[in-house]
Design brief:
CATH topology of the largest domain in chain B: MetI-like fold
Largest sheet of chain B: none
Distance between the termini of chain A: 42 Å
Largest interface: B-C, 55 and 55 residues
Distance between the termini of chain B: 16 Å
CATH architecture of the largest domain in chain B: Orthogonal Bundle
CATH superfamily of the largest domain in chain B: MetI-like
CATH class of the largest domain in chain B: Mainly Alpha
Helix content of chain A: 25-40%
Low-confidence stretches of chain B: none
Low-confidence stretches of chain A: 1-28
Chains: A alpha/beta, B mainly alpha, C mainly alpha
Number of helices of chain B: 10
Bound molecules: adenosine-5'-triphosphate, magnesium ion
Mean pLDDT of chain A: 85
Oligomer: heterotrimer
Order of helices and strands of chain B: HHHHHHHHHH
Number of strands of chain A: 10
Number of helices of chain A: 11
Shape of chain B: globular
Mean pLDDT of chain B: 90
Chain lengths: 293, 261, 246
């Protein structure tokens, strides 16, 4: 895979000159997402008492923003993503995308699941194409988008492989591609790189930045890796332990200025002292929340 | 396959051949020395000879005629069971009202072993094709239905969520996600059902029939021809084995993505 | 439960609305009455209790034998590779014969009254017990075995103190399958041996058909279903409690 050595602005120009310039987003305005006093409790089945997973969570994510959520295990990060994706409804509070309330899942709110969740009976191509078929994208357009993304995710030559014949990293790239081809307004990613080894992870982070930069859907990205958060995020939300509340919101852009870290290769960025400092700050915030139960 | 596994394979085959050889030898010795009477246990040579008699034609039917008699019952009952059992199982798993309505009926009928239906089937449909078809149907619908039901119920939630996220509606979820996802397990049920159908038709033919392998074995018993009995059992085993083999081959072609044994 | 009752009512309704002749399909009430009648009157060699007793005796003998041979042999085959490789081809071959097809030979060898049915049950219940035990031992956590080795366990300690407990869930699963197979085979064998034995629930099923009395046939089928389901339920409970202990 080729290294993403270009800045965002440059990348934007390169990508937008490609064959997919017309997309849903440019027509629709307002792709920010808003959480208003969102709480979620899971009913205590069989007499157990209910679990309050997310408590009074309020946040606005701007259009085109790359938001990263970090927090201790079990604090409700996946629950938040499921609600943002419309897969579940909050117990109280409201969520909206643009000016529409989020009531059901759909291709405008794409999710990359932690457990790839590819369809085992479909080949790579079929997996990527499935969402477009469901949404009536014309065959010619489907082909164009596939031709565009397949080389980007480095799976040319694997079109007819089944998921079980791919490595974990390759499967995750297919899972990302099947979301990107839909041109979602909102891209939700739940620890997408957790299953990858360190090298693959770095490459994937840089690739993600590259493909994301082309259309810049609003992103909410959940991770356990503080380094990944600091590298990718515009803003970082640190959550408390369960019930999950917002502990702090850190705007990475305050430190980086206009030239975001993610535009450069990770290994260069990691050596910077301001990067190290910010990483330490986020890590301190999380450390307080970790308890061994 | 690398060298080492090849050696292992050859070694296993060798072991197997030796142990089967020992059994054959023991069988031969026991019968040749008259330790066991030939009425009770025919000699290997006698079974071979009986197999030749059987393939030349036995009790008014050629080998093919016996085979066709058994197979036509199996196929008609089995196909009916698949056509009804699989859709019903899927429907029960997918729709709660259907589940509530049909579940208890399945719960009532399932514990009754298929052979117990043989007399009732004779009473209702007679001893010919309809009666036996019914018994085979009863014996093979259970695995078809149960596996289809469990297959759909246990489609991983993450696949359903992924499809909903991609924009799948209810019909797409069922036909393009849940059913394909459940296919390996449904196929497994169909294979079990086929074995069950075969065992049941043999059982039915043992009770009452005028042709078929079960009839051959039972006639051997009535005429005190233990060699014919053994030859009939071998015919049953070989046919069952081939059916299973064919099924697995088809399965591999139709469901190439699944993990096959 | 309510659903089960509803279906029985449907059966009743269909029979009385369409006036189905009882020789063809009796009503649930007629079947229940017949079961009570069977408890008080002789048919074949005796009353219902005798038939029930014979069936259970045959079943338990065949099943116990399958367990008594299948579990130890399975342990042996799971533990010692040569034993496995000597015997498995034989069982692979025999597996292709449906157990019920042994009924005629079994009649020849053991007679119609007891042995033939017990043997068929044995043949039906033995393979799953053997195979599951063997699998259970083979799949025993390798780490567990090396840990025990390191602690100085010998081959037999290993088998009985580690292999057997670790394999217990698989063994019980095998027993459950064996139980279902055996119960199925019992009915088949009793029907095939029926007129020669004059005892057993399977015989009752058969005798009902031969005398054009569907009430007896269906009553016996109901009892067979209920007993089979209860046996399975009992082993299910055992399985659950072992799973909890493990
Ligand atoms: N479907 C559910 N039913 C009941 N409780 C649930 C359900 N889903 C999540 N929970 C509970 O809600 C809490 C938050 O779960 P969630 O999966 O959102 O955590 P998370 O932050 O994603 O954790 P991790 O980092 O380990 O993935 C947990 O305590 C969990 O037990
Ligand atoms: Mg999570």
């Amino acid at each position: 895979m080729e290294r993403a050595g270009v800045g965002i602005i440059e990348a934007d120009l390169v990508m937008d000159a490609g064959p997919c310039e017309r997309d849903i987003r440019s027509a629709a305005r307002g792709n920010g997402i808003r959480f208003q006093n969102v709480s979620m409790s899971f009913g205590g089945n069989r007499g157990g008492h209910p679990t309050l997973a997310v408590d009074d969570f309020s946040l606005e994510v701007a259009e085109n923003e790359f938001l990263v959520i970090v927090g201790p295990s079990g604090c409700g990060k996946s629950t938040l993503l499921a609600m943002a994706g419309g897969l579940t409804q909050p117990t109280t509070g409201r969520l909206s995308l643009g000016d529409e309330p989020i009531v059901k899942p759909g291709p405008d709110k794409a999710i990359v699941f932690q457990t790839f969740s590819l369809f085992p009976w479909m080949t790579v191509i079929d997996n990527i194409e499935f969402g477009m078929r469901l949404n009536g994208v014309s065959p010619a357009e489907r082909q164009r988008r596939i031709d565009y993304y397949l080389p980007i995710i480095g799976l040319k030559g694997f079109e007819d492989h089944y998921p079980k014949q791919l490595s974990g990293g390759m499967q995750q790239r297919v899972a990302i591609a099947r979301c990107l081809v839909l041109r979602p307004r909102l891209l939700l990613m739940d620890e997408p790189f957790a299953a990858l080894d360190a090298q693959n992870r770095t490459v994937m982070q840089e690739e993600l930045v590259r493909v994301w930069s082309a259309h810049r859907p609003t992103v909410i990205f959940v991770t356990h890796s503080v380094e990944e958060a600091v590298f990718l995020a515009d803003r970082i939300v640190v959550m408390t332990r369960r019930p999950g509340r917002i502990k702090d919101v850190i705007d990475v852009r305050d430190t980086t200025g206009a030239q975001h870290w993610r535009a450069a290769p990770l290994d260069q960025v990691m050596r910077r002292s301001d990067f190290q400092d910010l990483r330490g700050r986020v890590w301190d915030l999380i450390r307080d929340e970790i308890v061994i139960e | 396959m690398n060298r080492r596994t090849t050696y292992l394979r050859v070694g296993q085959l060798g072991f197997g051949a030796v142990s089967l050889g020992v059994i054959l030898f023991a069988w031969w010795q026991v019968t040749a020395n008259g330790i066991v009477s030939e009425f009770l246990l025919p000699a290997p040579a006698a079974v071979f000879e009986a197999a030749q008699r059987l393939s030349a034609g036995y009790l008014g039917s050629s080998l093919t005629a016996h085979l066709v008699a058994s197979l036509s019952v199996v196929l008609s009952g089995y196909i009916a069971a698949v056509l009804i059992g699989v859709p019903l199982g899927i429907l029960m798993a997918w729709s709660r009202p259907v589940d509530i309505a049909m579940g208890p009926l399945v719960a009532i009928l399932r514990p009754i072993p298929p052979p117990a239906w043989i007399p009732l089937a004779i009473l209702w449909f007679g001893i010919d094709l309809p009666g036996k078809t019914f018994i085979v149907f009863v014996s093979s619908i259970t695995p078809c239905l149960i596996n289809a039901y469990v297959a759909i119920k246990e489609v991983p939630a993450n696949l359903i969520n992924a499809a909903r996220m991609l924009g799948a509606g209810n019909a797409s979820l069922l036909f393009r996600v849940a059913i394909p996802a459940g296919l390996p397990m449904i196929a497994n049920g169909l294979r079990i059902a086929l074995g069950s159908a075969w065992a049941t038709v043999v059982a039915a033919e043992l009770v009452v029939a005028t042709a078929g392998f079960g009839f051959v074995i039972m006639s051997g018993y009535r005429n005190i021809e233990s060699d014919i009995m053994a030859a009939g059992m071998i015919a049953v085993a070989v046919t069952g084995f081939i059916m299973n083999l064919l099924f697995r081959e088809v399965e591999k072609r139709v469901i190439p993505w699944a993990e096959h044994e | 439960m309510a659903g089960v009752a509803a279906w029985i009512l449907v059966w009743w309704g269909v029979v009385s609305v369409f006036k189905v002749p009882p020789e063809f399909l009796p009503s649930p009430w007629q079947v229940a009455k017949k079961i009570l009648w069977l408890a008080a009157n002789d048919i074949g060699e005796g009353k219902l209790w005798l038939h029930l007793g014979w069936s259970l005796l045959r079943f338990l003998s065949g099943f116990m034998l399958a367990m008594a041979l299948g579990v130890p042999l399975g342990l042996l085959m799971g533990h010692f590779r040569p034993a496995r490789e000597m015997l498995n081809p034989l069982f692979e071959m025999l597996r292709n014969v449906p157990p019920i097809a042994w009924a005629p030979f079994s009649l020849l060898w053991f007679g119609a009254s007891f042995g033939s049915q017990a043997f068929v049950i044995f043949v039906a219940a033995f393979p799953p017990i053997l195979m599951n035990t063997q699998q259970g031992v083979r799949l025993t956590d390798k780490g567990l075995i090396s840990a025990a080795r390191m602690l100085g366990a010998g081959s037999f300690t290993l088998l009985f103190e580690i292999g057997l407990p670790a394999a217990a869930p698989a063994v019980i699963a095998g027993l459950r399958i064996g139980l279902a197979n055996g119960w199925l085979a019992l009915v088949g064998a009793e029907i095939i041996a029926g007129p020669g034995a004059l005892t057993g629930l399977g015989f009752l099923v058969l005798v009902g058909q031969q005398n054009l009395q569907a009430t007896i046939t269906i009553g016996a089928m109901a009892l067979i279903g209920i007993i089979g389901a209860s046996l399975d339920y009992a082993l299910c409970r055992l399985e659950a409690s072992v799973a909890r202990g493990a």
